Amino acid sequence: MEPFTAWLVLWAKTQTLGWLARHWPKLLVGALVLGGACVFVGVTAATVVSSGGREAAAAETCTQLGYSVDDAAYQPPPLDQAPTIPTGGAVPGFGPTDGDKITNAQGIIVAGVEAGVGRRGLIVGIAAALQESGLENLDHGDRDSLGLFQQRPSQGWGTAQQIRDPRFAALSFFGGRTSPHFDPASGKASPAGLLDVAGWAQLPITVSAQSVQRSAFPGAYAKHEARATIIVDALTGGSGAARSVASQEPSTALQVGGEPQGVMTAADYRASGVDIDAFCSSNFELASASGAAAASQERIIPSGQWTAPLQARITSPFGMRFHPILHVWRLHAGTDFQAAVGTPIAAPTVGVVETVSWDSGAGLNVTLAHAGGVETRHLHLSQVLVKPGDQVRGGQIIALSGDTGVSTGPHYHFEVHVNGVPVDPEPLMLQHGVNLRAWS
């Protein structure tokens, strides 16, 4: 038996090393891509409301996610090394030797008017070109990047000749129905342009541009907004036709391909590639309200007894399952209950509030510490009514259920951990006289 075991171990080792030898380039690329995505998330979160008065809309979303927003206390991050705006040229925003750049900017303006992106869209386009090429129609760039927007033939933006055509490049950047890459079957351009980004008109300019460009420096576009605004106003102010179209501000409603769809929600921000969750947690504090209405529904129980966090039907039990969003088999470390947003959640027994936090997966959540090494965790909340360090009684309303984090819809997720290990809440609660299935 031992020789066979040794042979099996050697065989497995050989197979593993062989697989790594064949696939290490892919693994390296994957690690680099993941690292770049993390950088993008961090920078995007820091700049999500840094321009154009869009901080109010994002702050409102943070309020909906359970954060206490003090608009007066919020200061947008400073722009990093904002360049000096040239002067002395034939057009404001340009220097005396910038004739070619003025021509290129005019080409972008004409394409933007044709695409119907409005004044804000034109500013996004000019800011993107300022960052990518300095408004020069470059015949070189990183790898096969070319032209005003440094678009790449290998990424489907067109041939090298097409990309260096300012009108073609600009229409590609703006996307929508006038893009040379528009697909009538899907109703969008591929590669996607600005008009194909959900809610682009409500996003900060740096985020809108990054949603199209996918740059390695996602926060860089913000520093060009002031100059881009001067250029757009200068180049559209002298033309009646251009001015009448370009001066129109896009609706403040969510836009998909230019069609208004309603106000921006957290889900809309996430769909646009904006980590609104990270922005909220970085800039605002979790709400801690008096919860007078919820408190009226409290049923305080004697110390040492247990109660159900809420009385509702179980929709997903503890155990291994195929994740409905991530599409992988993984442990569902708690029990899900049917619950509309705003349903009161009770402390199952006496305890101490250990943490109140935000997690990209769990959303707004609360952890309570109880006797005997037991912790209960309450996930996907819309509002928290307690703060870390608070003593809570069994039956006390600690939060309101919600739909935050990674979620398929409003519900309540209840976890029990014993000495740091997640356990099935149902049998543990039964040991304390509580049948969580009583309402299923």
Q: Quick recap of the structure?
A:
The protein has 440 residues and is an alpha+beta fold. It contains 13 helices and 18 strands.
Give the arrangement of secondary structure elements.
Blueprint: H1 2-47, H2 55-64, E1 67-68, H3 99-115, H4 118-133, H5 160-163, H6 166-174, E2 182-183, E3 188-189, H7 205-213, H8 225-237, H9 240-246, E4 255-256, E5 259-260, H10 266-271, H11 276-283, E6 285-286, H12 292-295, E7 314-316, E8 319-322, E9 329-332, E10 335-338, E11 344-346, E12 351-359, E13 363-369, E14 374-384, E15 391-392, E16 397-401, E17 411-418, E18 421-423, H13 425-431
Antiparallel strand pairs: 1-6, 2-3, 4-5, 7-10, 8-9, 10-17, 11-16, 12-13, 12-15, 13-14, 14-16, 14-17, 17-18
Organism: Cellulomonas alba
Domain M23ase beta-sheet core: 331-425
Enzyme class: hydrolase
Number of strands: 18
Query: How many structurally independent domains?
Result: 2
Number of helices: 13
Counting helices, strands and paired strands, the structural category is alpha+beta
> Globular, elongated, flat, extended or rod-shaped: what is the shape?
elongated
From the alpha carbons, calculate the radius of gyration and give it in angstroms: 27 Å
As residue ranges, the low-confidence spans are 36-53, 71-77, 238-262
Give the termini distance in whole angstroms.
Answer: 52 Å
Estimated helix fraction: 25-40%
